[in-house]
Specification:
The chain is α+β, with helices and mostly antiparallel strands. The chain has 15 helices and eleven strands.
Length: about 425
């Protein structure tokens, strides 16, 4: 594995593979975190419009070439980044990379098809709200924060989506899609020299600074956090029979080592069918079908969450049990001995390696980690430090994190319960 910085500032991460496939990702620190409150959803809209045509290719030509060249390709906007990724045969890597380089360096943001694409995004927003767990989480973020970008969906609101203009998208693109802000990751059986030659050929001259006179523009901004507001918030829907419940706790002030300690704790507390939460609430009491806790450590998110679904009748009972288990967890003693920690490290490593088994997932993770943490290859070594973590450190971080929960409850209204 190697990391190379091109002359124009682009970071290239390369990992050797043993098959005849090449998976690659081009990513930018140009996610929703870089928006301002007046332009919610513009980062996601740029991702859509990038594919609408370049100086030399129409949208149809781009789509046709992608179908012919890639076994799989897609793009995604998150809060901390936007990524464009795909998998080709080794022999087609140059062709696939040139297509993506073209759409990312030569987009024209055409007027033709713009309104239709906005309607596509609007339809996507409606589908987003149909996912009840997602809707519950989004409601929780909205109630938990006052100023954070996380308060609103990546995609934006219905109002903000329809207010986006081509000029706004061009301005966002000009400011954020620059070489200093770009990471490329390649997982391939091709040699590094071959990959580097292709990347340099098509991205080596990509602009180093924003287009035009952008002296008035602020620099790529560092994300600022706020703690979640504690409390229990209720949202009612008439298309719901059961209840969805989510908790969140802020973890943005944890060090890397504290985060590792939290990962070890979570393997015991809420990850898997033998976890404390699953055993107490699902196995012993049968109150839920599934329950789990999650560490969302992406830049701009950084939360510890609990998510579950239950019946309306068991809503308050389930919350009471979770709160009791949280308090019990903060007072655990003599559980995380050396043997336990070694087993947990092995379990974490296994799950991480399975998640990275597909080359496209490895490529995406390398790119995302480099953008967020400036160390893409840490995805292969983050479990190494865990072996030296002590029970004292784990319990200290548990007591630090599991306080002042924001609890979001999504339940049916009176009419739908009749």
């Amino acid at each position: 594995m190697q990391k190379i910085i091109l002359k124009n500032g682009i970071k290239l991460l390369y990992k050797k593979a043993d098959n005849n496939l090449t998976s690659f990702t081009l990513g930018f620190n140009a996610g929703a975190n870089q928006e301002d409150n007046q332009h919610l959803g513009v980062a996601h809209a740029v991702e859509h419009m990038i594919f609408k045509g370049t100086i030399t290719r129409s949208e149809y030509e781009i789509n046709k070439l992608c179908d012919e060249t890639f076994g799989f390709c897609n793009a995604m906007t998150n809060y901390p980044y936007v990524v464009y990724y795909g998998t080709t045969l080794d022999e087609d890597f140059e062709k696939g990379f040139e297509i993506y380089a073209d759409i990312l360096t030569n987009p024209i943001f055409p007027e033709i098809g713009f309104k239709e694409e906005i309607e596509v995004i609007s339809a996507e927003l409606k589908e987003w709200k149909d996912d009840l767990y997602q809707f519950c989480e989004d409601s929780m973020f909205y109630n938990a924060f006052e100023k954070r970008r996380l308060k609103n969906l990546i995609i934006g609101t219905e109002e903000s989506i329809h207010s986006i203009t081509i000029k706004q998208m061009k301005n966002f693109y000009d400011k954020n899609y620059i070489s200093d802000n770009c990471v490329i990751s390649v997982v391939s059986s091709m040699s590094l020299d071959e990959v580097l030659d292709i990347v340099n050929r098509y991205m080596g001259d990509f602009r180093h600074k924003p287009i035009g006179d952008n002296s008035h523009m602020e620099k790529i901004k560092e994300y600022t956090y706020e703690y979640n507001k504690p409390g229990t918030y209720f949202q009612y829907r008439n298309d719901l029979q059961g209840a969805k419940i989510q908790y969140c706790f802020s973890i943005h002030d944890l060090s890397l080592r504290e985060n590792s300690a939290l990962k070890l704790f979570n393997l015991v507390f809420g990850e898997g069918t033998s976890s404390i939460l699953f055993d107490e609430i699902r196995t012993k009491r049968g109150l839920v079908y599934d329950i789990g806790s999650y560490i969302k450590n992406e830049t701009g998110i950084k939360l510890f969450t609990i998510s579950l679904g239950t019946s309306y009748e068991n809503t308050y009972k389930t919350i009471e049990i979770i709160n009791n288990e949280i308090e019990k967890a903060k007072n655990m003693k003599n559980f995380f001995d050396k043997n336990c920690i070694i087993k947990l490290c092995k379990s974490y490593k296994l799950r991480r390696m399975i998640a990275l088994e597909k080359s496209i997932q490895t490529s995406m993770s390398l790119c995302a980690y480099e953008i967020m943490y400036y160390d893409g290859f840490s995805i292969f070594s983050e479990f190494d430090e865990m072996k030296n973590i002590t029970e004292e450190e784990i319990m200290k971080v548990v007591k630090k994190v599991l306080v002042n929960a924001t609890i979001q409850v999504l339940i049916p209204n009176e009419e739908s319960r009749r």
